[in-house]
Structures are given as C-alpha cells and as structure tokens.
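SAMPLE LOG
Freezer: B-3
Tube label: C17
Construct: single chain, 360 aa
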Amino acid sequence: MRIAIVSDAWFPQVNGVVRTLDAVRGELVALGHTVEVFGPDRFTTIPCPTYPEIRLALLPGRRLEHLIHKFAPDAIHIATEGPLGFAARRMCLRRKLPFTTAYHTRFPEYVRARMFFPLAWTYAIVRRFHAPSRAIMVSTETIRADLAARNFSNIVAWTRGVDLDLFTPREAGPTPEDATRPIFLYVGRVAVEKNIKAFLKLDLPGTKWVVGGGPLLEKLKARYPEVRFTGHKHGAELAALYRAADVFVFPSRTDTFGLVLLEALASGLPVAAYPVPGPLDVLGGTPVAVLDDNLKAAALKALTLDRSQCRAHAMRYSWRRTAEMFRDNLAPIADAASVWGSQGQTVPSQVGPATAAGKP
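STRUCTURE (predicted):
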C-alpha cells in the first residue's frame, strides 16, 4: 500500500507527534508499505505565533496537491489540524477522496493556555475539521470518551509504542558528578501547555533535570538556576539521562497520551503525575506510577516503587503493533490507479530521513 501522511508536525521539530509518525513510518516500511510524510519541510514557512520554533506552511494547497498527486497514494492520513492538514482536507473533500485523521494533542486546551480562546469555540472548529474523516484515531479510551461526549464520531483506537532497545534500565553505577540524588527528571517541550512550572516549583530533595526546548526555556533557566536544563537531547544521550534519573515527573494536564511516559518506564523509571487523561490511561491502577493532585507527594512516593516492574509494563507497548493498528484504521481509495493516473513516484523529503523504527 502507498500511504500519504500529511502533518504540520515533522522534522526538524522535536515532539511526540514527530516521534510517533517517524516510528510508525519505519515499521510500515518494514511491513512492505511505501510511506511518504508531507510536512512543512517541503514548503515556504512562517513561525507559529507564540511558538516560533514551530514553522507553519504558508499557502500550501496547490503544491501539496501536486506532491500528493505525484505520489499517488492508496490511502491518505491527515495527522494535524494545521495549514497542511486543512489543505489536505480541502483537497480530499473536493475530489471526494476518503481520508483518516488523528487527535494527537488536546488542541483546544493548548489554544486556551496560550491565547485564552473559549474551549467551546475551538472545539467547534476541531469537530468540524474531523467530521468528514472516515476514522479519527485516538490514543486512549479517556480521549475517545471525551470526544464522543463532544459529538465527535468515527473514533477508533490507535495506541503508542516505545523503543525497548534504546530505552533500557540502568545497571548499578555512580551518581552523575553534577547531581545529588534523588534525581527528578522531566522530558518534553518547555512550554506553557506542559505545565512545567508545577514541577519546577516543587520543594524536592536532590536534583531536578529538564530535557527539552521551547519558548519558555531561557526564561525558566534564569528563574530556576538550581535546575539543570539540558536542551534537546536525542538517541543515546536522551536514553542515558532517563537511566540516570530516579523518578520521572510528568506535570502536564493536557496530553492525550504522553510518549515520554513509556520511554521513562522502559528505562526502569517510575512516574509521578496528575490523575488526568494520558497518565490515567497508561498508568492508572498499576504499581509503576503514583498519580496524585499533590505532585510533590507523588514524586516522593514514586521513589519507593519497584523499577523492574516499570520495565515490564513498558514491554506491553510496541511500535509494530502501533503501525499495524494505524494501517488497519486507514480508508483505502477505491481504484486509486484511475484517480491518480500513471503516477506513483516517491517524493523525496528534504528533512528527516526515515530512521530505524522507534529511533527519535
């Protein structure tokens, strides 16, 4: 199958959506499919308001349609509700082509956190965006129920995975020279919607590490000089930081899943988080996390959890299963050959060549 994925989140961005799509792409290719991701790297872009590190495609409609037509997919998946997502949606509706979508992020909550728009307004826009989709892929049952209660339809499950070869537990060894145990770790965007200040303000013993970049990075580095801010880390460097820590603290209240939760668990790292969607679905009722509205109490109690059980829980999630679910959720185009004509060429991406499945 030739699969086109249209996403406003793609390399060189660093986030869970990009890691998910890249890992799924790698697994689909290994399964014998041809996959192209159409991201902002192929278009003229402008910085996203309030988040200039993210680039948005400028008027991508005509070029996007040309690229998709040249690729001649058997199925089209629209991953994000941005300029590229809207352009792909318009093309599919105009040409009467089936497509699927995904609800990767709680976009209305993110907009409210940054621009204070009422939730009802933004949910109306997002619901309209997804309404024609043959399948809205969501990562957890809690998000499915929430969207169903807001009159979304055609909702299907699409879980997440983790690279169990890259993220592994630590063996006995010395404490890093620049840290005092216990080490409390956060990995993710340094941005307002991640509620990172809730972690930084905690009065905890030992050391706090923050891994990631974002619009609040320089401001928070100046405000919290005792915290180690590493910036973006990838691959083996990121895995080493997970292994060295003692507890993973996840302060977000708006994530739909939290891919970093699985990376932490695969590294043998217990989790402290709020009892909200994402952590509740992935970790609720398990012995590998403490979910509490008192985040300090959760972080301290998580120190007592069995790290071996964390690894065992993470082993339930694989990128191969994630890719197979994605493939099975797609809506194939009937008689795609007649739709596209004598096309069917791979359109080389400018940024982010396919990695081994699951490698960030």
